[in-house]
Fold:
Amino acid sequence: QVQLQESGGGSVQAGGSLRLSCAASGSTVTTYCMGWFRQVPGKEREAVAALYTSSNSPFYGDSAKGRFTINYDNFKRTLYLQMNSLKPEDTAMYYCAAGACAQGLLLLNEYNNWGQGTQVTVSS
Structure:
């Protein structure tokens, strides 16, 4: 079982930047992918960005392309999400997740370990 702890959320103005971190602990033997997802009240959780931990090759959801960068530090076992040019519509709870991703990186049901989330609020 993998435990995930997110940090780095906060409040920023539009156009600003934030860097989210997700520290993994416990057994990561069956963890092949990690990703960031976000959710606002009343809406479904959506994929932001994800990668295979062995290759660090990223995949991005449409909302993140060109503005966000995901990467994984294998030595620290920490996943990062650098978010630039933030918009008010990026306001959400951001969750870190880990899984096997046999069917795809951006599918929620491929992830079986989730963090508690970190809030990101972007004001206009």
